[in-house]
Please model this.
Amino acid sequence: MSGARQPVLEARIESFRFDGSRHPILHGSHLQLEPGTLNVIVGASGSGKSTLGAVLAGMLPRPGLDLLHGQLRLDGQQIDHRDGQGPRIDLAVWARHVALLPQEVGQYLSGIRETVAEELAFGLENIGVARAQMRTRVRSVARQFGIEPLLERAPERLSGGQQRLVALAALSIGEPQVLVLDEPLAGLDALAAERVRQVILELRTQGRAVVVLSRLPDALTGQADASFRLQDGTLWPVTVWPASVPPAITEWPAIEDPATLLAFDHVSAGYPQQSAAVLEDFSLRLVAGECLGLAGANGSGKSTVLKTAAGLLPPRGGTVESCEDIGLLLQNPADQLFERTVRREVSFGLPRGSLHRQRVERVLDELGLSELAETHPYELPVSARRLLALATVLVREPRVLLLDEPTEALDEHGLERLHRVIERRLAAGGAVLFSSHDESFMRRTAHRVVRLAAAPGRSVTRQQFGDL
Amino acid sequence: MPQADQLHPFTVLALATAVLTITTAAGYWPLSLAVIVGCLVLATRHRCLGKLCALSALIIAPTFGSQLMVHALFTPGPSPVLAQLGPFELTGAGLWLATQLALRTAVLVVVGLLCALVIDRHRLIAAIDLSKAPPQLGYLVAATLSLLPQLSAKQHAIGQAQALRLGHVGRGPVGWFQRIRLRSVPLVLGSLQDAADRAPHLAARGFPAAGTHTRLREVPDSTIQRVLRRVALICAVAGPALILTLDRFSG
Model:
């Protein structure tokens, strides 16, 4: 498909090492991106995907700190990095050619624009594009991504999935030749994910080189012009991906005469700064030994259900009854982490000598975090950060475990650990309520699924998975 | 009368500057009082009277207290003693002087706070970006004005996460101080980390703009407002000069 076209970007990475690190995180990798191609790079958590993305986007190495040996060639212009010596890249100029969407989209959004429309236009404003032209491009990209109804809303008040769509739209509005997308489908509902997939394919048709960094092979992998696996810091070309085996559906033991641990009775709920309710007339019952999935489009109120269940949002109407022993994993793990090391983070707020305190090492081990116990939470890969946030909840052994998008950013190992955590909680007589867009995980793990209606502020619907 | 949100932010700021410099230079208590009453009326129209009163009281009350201690309790001279407690005497002249000085400060506080409450920060940033001011000024103002809301949102998120893990922290001043202590370190460290994470992406999006830049947002302006701003700024400079000159000549 690519033929003999000149690559728009070529990266030869002999080695890349972060400041203060002894071992290179990337080495012996060569990547050549031709216009009009889709390039998928799959790698487990911590394999160096995000680092590779940042190197391609000119954000790494940080001058005077990190060490890169290798060359980047953009549009025929070669940049040599050797022994920490290399030209200082003007990010604003480089990003007009190679733009990066980070895995945590909150880092991409400016935080200083009031509306989504302004956020989309932000990059154009900074290079002096005329207002009339900006309006046309904002409208066009909003239509392309299906985010027209969001244009006048505040970016920071959107759901995680909506923010990802907005960031992706803002990235593509500048029409860079190369788009590096780190987990572009994470946190998106099926409709939004399909729309983003279509947009990525459209961008390829328009002659852009698209790089998708992903933790698992997905629907885009099958349509890629070039595929790679990033393993131990090295890129390996992949011609055929092994066929994925759907995980076995868990056979949960029957629940006999279970106690109700959480009950919503005709609840309406919303956020203090918004007059409109997100949930209306919502009822739900969660019993001991039950795992219940919450599905629904981005912005449909899944996080609101979980926050209301945890007592973070008082219901505006109806009643919520729950056992006192309840723990919540927030959607954004960064919101849940504030200590200096992984061990301190899990131990936070636990009295010395208490039973909970004694569980810290066991929980770290259960989630594969023991070796990282002295690492700063911000230095962890996103997947490990999510597991750490989960550890802070599990160490208290809550009877009801509430998980907001727990599968997001988790690789295969992480998903397996999460599944085992849920199994143990149920076996111990607890219950789990989780929201997810990962239908395969939901199908495998949940007893039943509650689907929320797409439009916020309207009554929600409940359906069994078998009915779908 | 147009609402402040219909006026260009620079017009509101220019009028406020003129009012402040003239009132301060005049040092005439009925004028200070009139300005404060005017501000309260405007605050009522903008539905922010309660907020203005509460915030102003927070600043003015300690200011008045300190003026009272400096002037009212130790003012020498023949003035009737209103109250006495040990060596301290509250005199009529001292109380009057303290009130006049506090009123002068109150004008600064009330006008400043009213501007902060009625001027939309996004319109102000856009107005600076669209003006001939250097782009660095827009960047500085945007960063400064965005800091508080971002800190507030982060503080809220940290508070929620800690509430989930700490359970009951306690009520009253002790609980309040405990919450502040627990939140402040992660708030500062988290905010620094956020800034570091966001900086390369802002730079990649060309912010702050190095050359010509535009804004999607329009901030309507008019010839009348431009004239009004010039007149206000002339008054802000010439008014106090005239008042001080007249004062000097009248002895």
About this structure: Chain A touches chain B through 57 residues (CB under 8 Å). Residues 455-468 of chain A have pLDDT under 50 and may be disordered.
